[in-house]
UniProtKB/TrEMBL annotation:
Origin superkingdom: Bacteria
GO molecular function, one term: hydrolase activity
Taxonomic path: Bacteria, Pseudomonadati, Pseudomonadota, Alphaproteobacteria, Sphingomonadales
Protein name stated in the entry: N-formylglutamate amidohydrolase
Annotated InterPro entries: N-FG_amidohydro, UCP029730
SUPFAM superfamilies: Zn-dependent exopeptidases (SSF53187)
């Protein structure tokens, strides 16, 4: 982690612009957090949103959309859960047991990682006064633990505020994509970061999920960064 912080900022915040939040950008596990899993699992979707961090960084560096990005794996602390959520420190993910998290000091992890991440994000957004927030994630084409193949290439999630999502769904469909409307899962059940930092403040947002087999390479991440930046720029204009 840079400077020992559970987050980093990429790009300069310009008040009134678009900002990006990437809760699952990293697969980093601190040395003092023994998860007890094979190292190979840290390269999979249970540890990190594959490709999402690369897209967020490219949007910051090439498209003027600064990013607030996690620097710790979701297996250490899930920053996209409420502090008191039963799975904020997961003991299982997609059929894989995380033995090192059984009996873990949850409060210590919340104190060391979750609170600093969200406190810094709150300050960033207060300073930015963004016209639109992008919450960027990726999803696996099919869960190992079962379920159907997920056909969507990109999904827009929302809870109560679907202002921006409605425009984004239409615009991504105009790109010829199979777009999920609150798929592959519903923001009405899982929307913690945007509930706290967007809906609670009346800030419009696009919670975007991209299927991770489409964004595994740098070239794909660059292409999607350009498309997401373009779509969200047009969403922001439509909201004016």
């Amino acid at each position: 982690m840079i400077d020992g912080l559970p987050y980093k900022h990429v790009g300069a915040v310009k008040p009134g612009g678009i900002v990006c939040v990437c809760d699952h950008a990293s697969n980093f596990v601190p040395e003092d957090v023994p998860l007890g899993i094979p190292a190979s699992l840290l390269e999979t979707h249970i540890a990190v949103d594959i490709g999402a961090g690369g897209i967020a960084a490219r949007m910051a560096r090439r498209h003027g959309i600064p990013a607030h990005m996690a620097q710790v794996s979701r297996l250490v602390i899930d920053l996209h859960r409420e502090e008191d959520h039963p799975h904020v420190v997961p003991t299982e993910s997609d059929g894989h047991l995380i033995p090192g998290n059984i009996g873990a000091n949850v409060e210590a992890r919340v104190r060391d990682y979750h609170r600093p991440y969200h406190e810094a994000l709150a300050k960033c957004l207060d300073a930015a006064r963004p016209e639109l927030i992008i919450s960027l994630h990726s999803f696996t084409p099919k869960l190992e633990s079962g379920g159907e193949q997920r056909p969507w290439q990109v999904g827009l999630l929302y809870n109560e505020d679907d202002r921006a999502a409605r425009h984004a769904i239409r615009l991504f469909r105009e790109e010829g994509l199979n777009v999920g409307d609150n798929e592959p899962y519903s923001g009405k059940q899982l929307n913690a970061t945007m509930n706290r930092h967007a809906e609670a403040h009346g800030r419009p947002y696009c919670a975007i999920e991209i299927r991770n087999d489409l964004i595994s390479t740098r070239a794909d991440q660059s292409r999607w960064a350009a498309m997401v930046a373009d779509v969200c720029g047009r969403v922001a204009l439509a909201l004016d």
